């Protein structure tokens, strides 16, 4: 299965991006083809309905979203919402990019949890006709230490790792069910 992961931070070394990278690592370990779109490294132009699709990063992003069997959206929580760069990226795509695809929402917060950004992402996914995974991943406070730049995946806190692995396995199972036998 093809999994596209959109890391929606515009900060180098963001814990939400490291978490997204770890999710990609887990999916690849399960023999899935993973494409990571890191919006810090490959920024997209500001959305406008009048814009042409001639921006190189935009074309690659849209193609990755269109060809994906399932999608992961990752964001830091800013002022009780998803990042502006992730919202901008989502504005560039439509229902055809999400229709009947499993979508996992992931967030990192400086506080305890990032429920507002997760709820906002799930609302956007629903409006794009994607299928929200019933579970999401939110890391906050000390949990974020497991996803700092200098931490290798083997050193992720065991409780955090177990939760991430459980949610990712559940998401991949949903994605496989939605993709059907022809896309496996």
UniProtKB/TrEMBL annotation:
Domain NADPH-dependent FMN reductase-like, residue spans: 1-138
GO CC annotation: cytosol
Pfam family, one: FMN_red
GO molecular function, one term: oxidoreductase activity
InterPro entries: Flavoprotein-like_sf, FMN_Rdtase-like_dom, NAD(P)H-dep_reductase
Signal peptide as annotated in the record: none
Gene3D superfamilies linked: 3.40.50.360
Record-stated family: Belongs to the azoreductase type 2 family.
Protein name (Swiss-Prot/TrEMBL): NADPH-dependent FMN reductase-like domain-containing protein
Natural source organism: Paenibacillus oryzisoli
């Amino acid at each position: 299965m093809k999994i596209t992961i959109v890391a929606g931070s515009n900060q180098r070394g963001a814990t939400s991006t490291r978490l997204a990278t770890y999710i990609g690592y887990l999916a690849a370990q399960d023999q899935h083809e993973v494409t990571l779109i890191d919006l810090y490294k490959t920024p997209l132009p500001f959305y406008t309905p009048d814009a042409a699709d001639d921006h190189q990063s935009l074309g690659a992003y849209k193609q990755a979203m269109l060809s994906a069997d399932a999608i992961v959206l990752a964001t830091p929580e800013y002022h009780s919402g998803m990042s502006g760069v992730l919202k901008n990226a989502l504005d560039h795509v439509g229902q055809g990019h999400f229709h009947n695809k499993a979508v996992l929402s992931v967030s990192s917060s400086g506080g305890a949890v990032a429920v507002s950004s997760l709820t906002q992402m799930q609302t956007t996914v629903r409006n794009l006709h994607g299928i929200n995974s019933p579970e999401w991943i939110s890391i906050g406070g000390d949990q974020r230490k497991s996803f700092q730049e200098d931490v290798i995946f083997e050193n992720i806190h065991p409780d955090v790792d177990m939760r991430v692995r459980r949610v990712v396995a559940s998401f991949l199972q949903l994605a496989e069910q939605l993709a059907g036998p022809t896309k496996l």
